[in-house]
Prior knowledge:
Blueprint: H1 3-14, E1 21-26, E2 29-34, E3 37-43, E4 46-50, H2 56-61, E5 66-71, E6 74-82, H3 85-89, H4 91-114, H5 126-134, H6 140-158, H7 164-175, H8 184-198
Antiparallel strand pairs: 1-2, 2-3, 3-4, 4-6, 5-6
Helix pairs in contact: 6-7
Amino acid sequence: MSSSKQRIEQTKQRLAALGPVESRTQFGGYSLSVEKTVFAVVADGELYLRACEQAQPYMSERKMQPLRLVKRGLPVALNYYRVDGMLWADAEQLVAISSLCLNGARQELQERHRNRRIKDLPNMGIRMEALLREVGILSIDMLVQQGAKRSWLKLRVNNKHLGLSVLFALQGAIVGSHYQALPTEVKEELRDWFEQNACCDR
């Protein structure tokens, strides 16, 4: 077993109080997450915790070293800090600091989610966001409330050549999926609806 994989297994046991810890490859190492929220990484057999406002004073006081990667030939410090031997040996303190890092990461995700715009959704972009804004759909909540079909009809008023792919893209954006990954039955239902409504303008 590699040193990183061994450290991952040890970390999962040490931090079990946080919930089931999942691991996946990232940054040339492995990211650790609880309920899909990444709060730590393991690289070269070392555990690094993601910094947050609450844990930063502790990390600064202990002079914890940042994780460094080389990008385009230059070293880049990431917002993750190495757990030294003293902290690793203090199981209670390790759980406490890791909990702060996990909660901080969750707060960041929630804040990012609140500030998301239509352009940030799958299949969308600046241009589609602008087109939707022109027809009065100004936010993600409004897009969800309108639904893919009604949104498509509103867009169609300004663009008679709007196709089926846009309808798929809108549906995918609403459910958080790439349009190609939509279930076959959903695509078929949308295709039938499209053929009935697109022909009305011919």
